[in-house]
Design goal:
single chain; alpha+beta; 6-stranded antiparallel β-sheet; 5-stranded antiparallel β-sheet; 10 helices; globular
């Protein structure tokens, strides 16, 4: 089609393309996507006044989802980005890739990945489904670690397009934390623990995980306290640089949220790799010290009469057969680690 606003190697003779901000696509998990010229997860004025890394990472689209219904048997994408993120310890599809789910028998199931990275502009690809002429509920996960400026979706000419199914009624779950919360190091976006919980329970969510930079700043707590949410997960243990920093910020962060949301369910988590030092022949004294600080936030809340707070000991998150097989580097969960985290945290929620 000559009218598409980009140059592409995709089949444009048999497809029509629309940007994801256009009707009837539904975008979830991102901040004001229909008002800004780029996709992001929080206001820029909050991000740039938090710390330098958050000022860069807030445009990463972790948790961004697009839902729609179509009978197109092929779905193409052309994604424009201001840079593709790559890591030595994480697959390209996990960091910068896009995966697609299709509803089958009432549950969204993984259908494929778009993995043709184009360094000069972003990303494009094509996924084919079996059975032409069959209407499908589609959900696309945007990249966990790359920025997206425009996200074009291509459908076969003549194919239907309508709004997708909504999530269950209720406000989104909000997650705040580290690179683990952001999705490092899942093999693809949908395998991050936040996404797994959402898929299993059909619940909307907002991911405010910031790799290496979720440090419990007051400005972020005050911003999160303004959000409408059904539950809040506080998971930044790993990014507090010292136990002293954690002690100075953790309970304060919780209290800022609690002041604005006195009845909100809050789940407080310590870091999942509790036994990492022991696995290297050392001891877990530092991890235990950090856990005790986080537990004090929880116990102080209980002692004040708070009945809507839960604590998850990170030491239990990787439990089961071969817990040391749950990370890629001793810290960041792989898909097995994320699945076990999703089971425990999902049950708490």
């Amino acid at each position: 089609m000559s009218s598409i606003p980009f140059t592409t190697a995709l089949d444009t003779e048999n497809f029509y393309f629309k940007e994801a901000r256009e009707e009837p696509f539904d975008i979830y998990g991102l901040y004001k996507p229909h008002e800004l010229s780029y996709y992001c997860r929080m206001p820029e004025e909050i991000a740039v006044n938090t710390n330098p890394k958050v000022a860069n990472l807030f445009k990463n689209t972790s948790g961004g989802r697009i839902r729609f219904r179509t009978d197109s048997s092929r779905i193409a994408i052309h994604v424009e980005s201001d840079g593709i993120t790559r890591f030595r310890h994480m697959p390209d599809i996990g960091a910068s890739g896009i995966d697609v789910y299709c509803e089958i028998n009432g549950k969204y199931r993984f259908a494929g990945t778009y993995h043709n990275h184009q360094q000069d502009f972003g990303h494009e690809g094509l996924i084919a489904f079996a059975g032409p002429g069959q209407e499908r509920e589609i959900m696309i996960h945007m990249p966990n670690y790359s920025n997206v400026v425009n996200f074009y979706i291509g459908l076969e000419n003549g194919a239907t397009l309508d709004h997708g199914k909504k999530y269950l009624p209720g406000k989104p779950i909000v997650y705040y934390g580290s690179s683990i919360t952001q999705g490092g190091c899942s093999s693809r976006p949908g395998n991050a623990y936040t996404h797994i919980i959402s898929i299993n329970n059909n619940r909307d969510f907002i991911n405010l995980g910031f790799s290496g930079s979720g440090r419990g700043e007051e400005i972020v707590a005050k911003y999160i306290s303004t959000l409408e949410m059904s539950a809040f997960v506080l998971d930044y243990d790993w990014n507090a640089p010292t136990p002293e920093h954690l002690e100075a910020t953790h309970e304060k962060f919780f209290k800022i949220i609690r002041e604005k949301h006195p009845e909100l369910p809050v789940v407080i988590i310590s870091k999942p790799d509790f036994y990492a030092a022991e696995n290297k022949g050392g001891d877990n004294m530092l991890a235990a010290k950090r856990r005790d600080i986080i537990y004090r936030t929880y116990s102080n809340a209980l002692n004040s009469g708070d009945k809507n707070v839960k604590f998850i000991d990170g030491a239990c998150l990787f439990k089961g057969t071969n817990p040391d097989a749950c990370t890629v580097d001793g810290t960041h969960p792989n898909d097995l680690g994320f699945m076990r985290m999703a089971e425990v945290i999902g049950n708490a929620l």
